[in-house]
Design a protein that fits this description.
The structure holds 3 protein chains of 3 kinds.
Chain A lengths: L1 H30 L5 H6 L5 H11 L5 H13 L5 E6 L16 E3 H36 L4 H14 L3 H15 L12 H30 L2 H9 L3 H39 L4 H10 L3 H29 L6
Antiparallel strand pairs in A: 1-2
Helix pairs in contact in A: 1-12, 5-6, 5-8, 5-10, 5-12, 6-8, 7-8, 7-10, 8-10, 10-11, 10-12, 11-12
Chain B lengths: L1 H6 L13 H11 L1 H19 L41 H37 L1 H16 L2 H11 L4 H28 L2 H9 L3 H37 L11 H9 L7 H33 L3
Chain C lengths: L6 E14 L2 E14 L3 E5 L6 H8 L7 E10 L2 E2 L5 H7 L4 E4 L13 H12 L5 H14 L5 H5 L8 H13 L5 E5 L7 H17 L3 E6 L2 H7 L2 E6 L2 E6 L1 H6 L4 H9 L13 H11 L7 E13 L7 E14 L4 E5 L6 H8 L7 E6 L2 E2 L5 H10 E4 L13 H11 L4 H15 L15 H13 L5 E5 L7 H18 L2 E6 L2 H7 L2 E6 L2 E7 H6 L4 H9 L10 H4 L26 H5 L5 E4 L2 E3 L6
Parallel strand pairs in C: 3-8, 3-9, 6-7, 7-8, 13-18, 13-19, 16-17, 17-18
Antiparallel strand pairs in C: 1-2, 1-4, 4-5, 9-10, 11-12, 11-14, 14-15, 19-20, 20-22, 21-22
Helix pairs in contact in C: 3-4, 7-20, 14-15, 14-16, 15-16
The chains are: A mainly alpha, B mainly alpha, C alpha/beta.
């Protein structure tokens, strides 16, 4: 039991460090952007004096380390800052000189209100990915060199060649607009999650199909698998009890690395389908240079990455005790 | 192994010339049908993109309002004068796609070369040196991997002006960690190999061992599979163009063409879809070659070829 | 299953071929023999004789590129090759048990060993409930003398030592009470003391298991200890069927005689004529004190590994614990010990790939630690180390000539000089010139080892350390390389330090020998003394465990060891050999014996050594 705690403590410390590095990098990058955030908030019509005054009030003239420290202190209290653009009511508040800061939405609440949608989308996408890639990948690995293997190779090559944004447009055009089968664009119910999820699943599954077949084929070549048959174990027991168990470890690790790609895919797809999740929030923030939101999203995504990877490592060590050390 | 030991004798028995790993890798990939299919499509598209623009009056940027919204040849009203139709400004989509392909290939190849150089250098040093150098470099890599590439690229490109060069730099900077990881893990096992120790005993310096012995041994297999990343980077380049922070108009890129066409999806669906199909085909050719090279590499690493 | 003479297994005219692409060659050629119920049949042959494939054929494990060309394997009258998939499966594991030479990779690394054995029992005997299967497994683990079997049941393969895993494999094969047990080279990967324990265990078990055993090995002495009858296999053919006694006394077939010739000899072998004592005396007479070429002084090396059970805890692996010895010019110094004794760590320290934690290593009287980078580079020219594994120690991507030239390049030689020296050295070690342009792919172990030698030799060293350099080669090639070493010693005035576990080889070539156990030198003396009247009980035990056909100067039964060497993390207090020592006395538990003089030029670390 001791090792799990040690392991968790060590990984959490490392993870915290990662999030810190990321947040500082993003924070610094954003401060290097041309244009004055105070100007962004107040709009082009505001006088220079007002901009300068607002900037001072917001602490934008302090050294970057001080600003970062203030930002971190805020995060510790659950305050990720306030959007430059979005108001609490959801609309943009750009260029309104009378707008007072309290009316602008907090980044925390913006993320909080969009996160459930994104989780729903990512969850469904992951489910489809696994349902598609597990059987195809395993069959490809078990029957290496046969049609199952070739099918896996060709299918994953086709899937990985579909640019997600283009595929999303084509699906929306054909399935929603022309055929009217599944609704998409915007969100008015669970059905609106299906097409975006399919697009993400198509983007993710080739990686899993390939790795799974490689990993299964590799495991099948190990001595203990051959010996198992001679020891008297049946082929099913060998496949389900031993081969898949061992092949799962590299797949888990792959999943950990792919979390970033999953989040990236979500971003584009949400934008195209006008799906009200974090991705759409981010793209809008980018086009409007709403840096507090971008910062918040980047930190969130790296935190998700860290947490998922700790879980992945725990699961992998649970399967293969050699990974504990 | 046992039979090889048995074959060991003082009399020389080099029967046939042993072939190096790189040649075996190529030969194995070449035997796979998907490699040939991919190569044929790729050569065809490259040839078209390089040669065709010289032999046509069509211009990728010339606006011709009278020709706007012409459908592709297989629809009513279409003709071979504009095989894939025209866009909202009457520009020919075929020639725009070809030039887009040229740009995409240029950008993505440069990107992959750059990220390969950065990533493998970092990975080699981390894996070979180990210790705190490794720890620091790898935590940095983790940090970078933890932000989705696209978010990082977006942040950087919104604060700089997007030109082909900045796009290349940003994509390479945002995606080298994958190479660093792979190279490091190979270098780690390589470092423990006896031949490295052998060279150390001979008195060779770390740098010499790394450059003369380790790098030529582990980099080629990684390089071959980089073709898959050329395809990936083409997609990313297109995505950046699509959300408006890639190479800027009027230079045609797949991203901007599709983004423009999206506004006319209902009336002129071909503007967004046709160039996309063209992009898909290019990607498919690269990925088919990449898949067979990857397969060959796995066989090489397993020692089955 | 009724009379004692009933035939259990009959192999009739079995021929197996290897077919790969254009290549087609016979592996087994009309092999016929029979094995009675509960009898033990030994099968002896060298590597490449097809014996492992025969073992696998009997266990029903013939897969492409191997194909049966003809013949039958009859188990109690049923042809194994004629059976359906389901019937084969019903025999495997249940009636035919198999123990291989590779216990380390025979279990799934992700599941506890005991659980896997119980799983196997349940797979072949679904009628046995899980609880009972577990109980039976633990009983058997205990029976093969795995300490604290109930706890070991839950441990993973990576937590077992090699000998322990081989015991577990034996349990796995026996758990379903098979009637036929195939033991394929079971002692091959194990250290001599552990291998001797396994053979003794199988001999003991023979009485209470009701199985016929096919015992396959390369070693005549090992098979003599256990088998009733003996088959000699050569190039896929059975050339002789005999009994162990007849085999030793009067082998009929020429190949059997050759095989006996090649069995290792220790006590009837003459040690090399030159003894260090003489050499030293001669040098002393010639005037002046002789200076050791290599002097190792109280060298230690510890590694720390993370402790799984404590927060940020560390465990200390004490790999080398204060080793001291001198090697004199012209010596053939031997350093012997079983795996885990610290000799490979010591070899790393000697080659200065990593520095020792304390103590010093002097080359030509100069401490390597205090040398400047330039001096160290010069030192490396004079002091080379040949590595164990000829497959991994040569860079795979460089042509052979460049690999050899690389040594000179490192030391800043010019193109022309490199070319000349490489040509000369290749000729000297017997490598054909045209090999220089080729990559090492496809070369045999012997040729690779020659490349390795050439690469070291081209630097014209005075001291060469041979770290298990010959252990992966077959006896013929080994003999050829030993000749080469002797020739080189004569022409270049080399000094050798052999690091090896091969006692027969050490007996043949070394003048002085140091024996290591758990990171310490426990005995250091000249060849004749170490082999004929060893002062340390460990030396005696190790020597008595070597399977040889000769009369030993002491009875093996008196000094066989129990258990396995302790882990270098948990080194016992007092004398580290005490827990396994048959002679341990009270003092051994309290005080660690140092290396002390027991006779002139003879040292041992034992309280009992006089």
């Amino acid at each position: 039991m001791g090792f799990i705690l040690t392991f968790l403590a060590r990984r959490l410390a490392q993870g915290l460090l990662i999030v810190l590095v990321v947040s500082f990098a993003i924070f610094a990058l954003v401060r290097m952007a041309p244009g004055d955030p105070a100007r962004t908030i107040l709009g082009g019509m505001a006088s220079d004096e007002l901009v300068e005054q607002t900037a001072r009030e917001m602490g934008l003239r302090d050294p970057i380390i001080v600003q970062y420290g203030r930002y971190l202190a805020g995060i510790l209290q659950g305050d990720f800052g306030t959007s430059y653009i979005k108001s609490e009511s959801g609309g943009a508040s750009m260029g309104n000189q009378d707008q007072i800061r309290s009316a602008r939405a907090s980044v925390g609440s913006l993320i909080g209100s969009t996160l459930p949608y994104t989780l729903q989308l990512a969850g469904l996408a992951l489910l489809i990915t696994l349902v598609v890639s597990i059987p195809i990948g395993i069959a490809g690995g078990v029957h290496a060199g046969r049609w199952q293997d070739k099918f896996a190779v060709y299918l994953s090559s086709v899937f990985v060649s579909l640019p997600n944004f283009w595929f999303a447009i084509v699906l929306a055009l054909v399935v929603t607009a022309k055929l009217g089968w599944i609704p998409s664009i915007g969100y008015q119910g669970f059905a609106y999650t299906i097409l975006p999820a399919i697009v993400i699943a198509v983007e993710m599954s080739p990686i899993f199909i390939r790795s799974l077949s490689v990993s299964v084929a590799d495991t099948l070549r190990q001595t203990f698998v051959e010996v198992a048959a001679v020891r008297g174990l049946g082929p099913r027991r060998i496949l389900y009890g031993h081969v898949l168990r061992n092949a799962a470890v590299p797949i888990l690790n792959l999943f950990g690395v792919q979390v970033g790609a999953l989040l990236g895919g979500v971003l584009i797809v949400e934008y195209i389908f006008d799906y009200p999740g974090i991705g759409l929030l981010t793209v809008q923030a980018v086009t409007q240079r709403d840096f507090p939101v971008i910062q918040g999203v980047a930190i969130l995504s790296s935190a998700i990455f860290v947490v998922v990877n700790i879980l992945v490592d725990l699961a992998a060590a649970r399967i293969d005790p050699r990974l504990e050390s | 192994m046992a039979s090889e030991v048995l074959a060991g004798s003082a009399t020389p028995l080099p029967v046939k010339r042993p072939v190096g790993p790189t040649r075996r890798l190529w030969a194995t990939a070449w035997k796979r049908p998907e490699f040939k299919v991919g190569l044929i499509i790729f050569l065809f598209l490259i040839g078209l993109a390089v040669i065709f623009p010289f032999f046509t009056e069509l211009s990728p940027v010339k606006i011709s309002v009278k020709d706007k919204f012409l459908p592709p040849f297989f629809l009513e009203g279409g003709s071979f004068a504009h095989p894939l139709g025209t866009d909202q400004l009457g520009r020919d989509l075929f020639i725009r796609s070809l030039i887009g392909l040229q740009n995409a290939l240029l950008i993505s190849f440069s990107t992959v070369i750059l990220m390969f150089l950065i990533g493998t250098a970092v990975g080699l040093v981390a894996g070979y040196k180990g210790g705190w150098v490794d720890t620091i470099l790898m935590r940095l890599t983790d940090a970078q991997l933890s932000i989705p590439l696209i978010i990082l690229a977006i942040v950087i490109l919104t604060i700089t002006r997007p030109t082909p060069l900045t796009v290349i730099l940003v994509l390479a900077l945002a995606s080298w960690p994958a190479y660093a990881r792979v190279t490091r893990s190979v270098a780690l096992t390589e470092r423990r190999r006896e031949y490295v120790r052998g060279a150390k005993i001979l008195g060779a310096s770390d740098l010499r061992i790394m450059l003369v012995l380790v790098a030529p041994n582990i980099l080629p297999p990684i390089a071959f599979v980089a073709i898959l990343d050329v395809a990936r980077m083409m997609i990313f380049e297109a995505i950046l163009g699509f959300i408006g922070i890639g190479v800027q108009p009027p230079t045609p890129t797949f991203g901007t063409i599709i983004s423009d066409g999206r506004k006319y999806l209902i009336n002129a669906w071909w503007i967004a879809t046709m160039p996309g199909a063209f992009l898909f085909l290019s990607l498919l050719s690269l990925n088919l070659m990449g898949a067979s090279l990857e397969r060959a590499r796995n066989m090489l690493l397993r020692g089955t070829i | 299953m009724t009379g004692k003479q009933a035939t259990l297994l009959e192999v009739k005219d079995l021929s197996i071929e290897l077919i790969r692409g254009q290549e087609r060659r016979p592996v087994l050629d009309r092999v016929s023999f029979s094995l009675e119920e509960r009898a033990v049949l030994g099968l002896i042959g060298e590597s490449g004789s097809g014996k492992t494939i025969l073992a696998k054929a009997i266990a029903g494990w013939i897969a492409p590129p191997l194909f049966r060309k003809g013949g039958q394997v009859l188990y109690r009258g049923r042809d194994l090759f004629g059976l359906s998939e389901a019937d084969t499966r019903a025999l495997r594991g249940r009636h035919i048990g198999y123990i291989g030479a590779d216990p380390g990779s025979s279990f799934d690394p992700t599941i506890p060993v005991g659980v896997q054995i119980a799983e196997k029992l349940r797979a072949v005997r679904p009628d046995i409930p899980m609880a009972q299967a577990a109980k039976r497994t633990i009983e058997l683990l205990d029976r093969v003398r795995i300490p604290s079997a109930a706890r070991r049941y839950r441990e993973y393969p990576s937590q077992y030592s090699g000998g322990m895993l081989q015991r577990a494999m034996i349990v796995d094969a026996l758990v379903a009470e098979p009637t036929l047990l195939v033991c394929d080279n079971v002692t091959q990967p194990l250290d001599v003391t552990v291998a001797a324990q396994i053979v003794r265990l199988l001999r003991d078990l023979r009485e209470d298991i009701k199985a016929g055993i096919l015992f396959i090995t390369t070693s005549v002495p090992v098979v003599s200890e256990i088998a009733d009858d003996l088959l000699v296999l050569s190039k896929g053919r059975v050339v002789e069927r005999t009994t162990p006694a007849r085999m030793v006394a009067a082998p009929e077939h020429a190949y059997s005689r050759e095989l006996l010739e090649r069995m290792p000899r220790i006590w009837t072998e003459q040690p090399p004529l030159r003894s260090t004592v003489d050499a030293q005396a001669a040098r002393a007479k010639a005037g002046g004190k002789t200076q050791p070429i290599l002097s190792v002084q109280d060298v230690t090396k510890h590694y720390s590994v993370p402790d799984r059970d404590r927060f940020f805890g560390k465990q200390i692996v004490q790999a080398v614990r204060g080793v001291t010895f001198d090697v004199f010019p012209g010596d053939n110094f031997g350093l012997v010990g079983e795996s885990g004794c610290g000799k490979s760590t010591l070899s790393r320290l000697l080659s200065w790939v990593e520095p020792p934690d304390s103590g010093s290593i002097l080359f030509d009287g100069k401490d390597i630690a205090t040398m400047s980078a330039r001096e160290r580079l010069t030192m490396r020219r004079g002091f080379q180390l040949l590595l164990q594994d000829p497959y991994n120690c040569i860079p795979p991507n460089l042509p052979v000539g460049r690999t050899i030239g690389f040594s000179l390049q490192v030391h800043g030689a010019g193109r022309k000089e490199i070319q000349e020296k490489v040509d000369a050295v290749m000729a000297e070690v017997g490598l054909p010139r045209e090999l220089a342009e080729r990559l090492p792919i496809g070369l045999s172990a012997g040729q690779r080892q020659r490349i390795n030698i050439a690469r070291a030799l081209v630097l014209e060293p005075r001291l060469m350390i041979l770290d298990e350099t010959l252990s992966s080669l077959d006896p013929m090639e080994q003999a050829r390389l030993l000749d080469l070493f002797e020739k080189l010693q004569a022409s270049h005035g080399l000094t050798y330090l052999f690091i090896s576990h091969d006692l027969a080889m050490v007996r043949k070539v070394c003048t002085r020998i140091a024996v290591m156990y758990l990171g310490k030198v426990v005995e250091l003396a000249d060849n004749q003394t170490v082999f004929m009247k060893p002062a340390h009980p460990y030396t005696k035990a190790m020597l008595s465990a070597v399977p040889v056909l000769e009369e030993k100067p002491y009875r093996a039964e008196d000094c066989l060891l129990e258990g396995e060497p302790p882990s270098p993390i948990d080194i016992p207090e007092g004398c580290s050999f005490r827990p396994r020592c048959p002679l341990a006395i009270g003092r051994c538990a309290q005080q660690e014996p140092g290396l002390k003089v027991v006779a002139p030029h003879e040292y041992a670390a034992c309280h009992l050594a006089a």
